Each structure stands twice: as C-alpha cells, then as structure tokens.
Amino acid sequence: MKKSVSIFIVFSLTVFFCFSCGTDVTKKTSIDSTSHQAGVPDEGKVLYSEKCSLCHGENGDLGSMGAANLVTSKINSAAVLAIMRDGKNGMRSFASDLNVEQLNAVAKYAELLRR
Q1: Are 71 and 114 in contact (CB under 8 A)?
Q2: What distance lies between CA 44 and its chain's CA centroid?
Q3: Which of 20, 53, 99, 102 has the lowest tally of Cβ within 10 angstroms?
Q4: Among positive and negative, which fits the CA dihedral 101, 105, 36, 32?
Q5: Is-contact 53 87, C-beta < 8 A?
Q6: Any idea where the domains of the chain sit in the sequence?
Q7: Contact in structure between 26 and 91 (CB atoms under 8 Å)
C-alpha cells in the first residue's frame, strides 16, 4: 500500500512538472528601452523569459527537469528551431504558441546565452 502511494505521488509530480514547463505562469513583461543590451533581440529575450526560463533558467543553465544547459550547448540554430518546433524528450513543442518569427527570436536569444 505504501509503495503504491509513493508511486502515485511521484507520477503526479512528474505529470505536474511536465505540463507546467513552458506555460504562462510568469507575468508578461514589457520591454524597457533603458535596459536594452547591445545586440540582444528584445522579443526573443521577453519570450524566452515567459516560455523557457521556468525549465532552462534566466541564464540558460538551470537544467530543471532535465532541460538542456543552453550555456554549454553546441547544437546549431537549425537544431534549436527544430526542437522548439517539434519538442524533444521532456520538452514540449512550442509551434502552437509561437509563430516562426517568434521561434527565430527565441533561438537567437538562446544562442547569446552561450559562453
């Protein structure tokens, strides 16, 4: 009995985290013209913060629930776009949430997180 309760709790938490990743739980942020970084795509930064930071972290290195470390990532931009569009492993697809221009903006911003 105790084992089945533990399994149920683990399963429930896993489902919760899978569905919470990438949802709009953060407040929408506006772009502050005084805080622009040179060369940073503003739309990509805002969308990344809203859609990606829960799992990848604001700096790209959080790795929550198996999310890739974007700081050390070596994949090219075409692969990044394919993963965002189609999903991979535990990451869901964002094709229904973001248009092509928005996906490109997020991909460009994610590349800026690399060191």
Answers
A1: yes
A2: 11
A3: 99
A4: positive
A5: no
A6: 2-23+41-112
A7: no
C-alpha distances (whole Å) from 76 to each of 26, 51, 81, 95 are 28, 20, 9, 19
Position of tokens 């470390």?
69
pLDDT digit string (tens) for 41-99? Answer: 699 999 999 999 999 999 999 999 999 999 999 998 899 999 999 999 999 999 999 99
3-state secondary structure the chain: CHHHHHHHHHHHHHHHHHHHCCCCCCCCCCCCHHHCCCCCCHHHHHHHHHHCHHHHCCCCCCCHHHCCCCCCCCCCHHHHHHHHHHCECCECCCCCCCCHHHHHHHHHHHHHCCC
Q: Which fold has domain 2-23+41-112?
A: Cytochrome Bc1 Complex; Chain D, domain 2 (1.10.760)
**48 residue type, one letter:** Y
Q: What is the pTM of this model?
A: 0.65
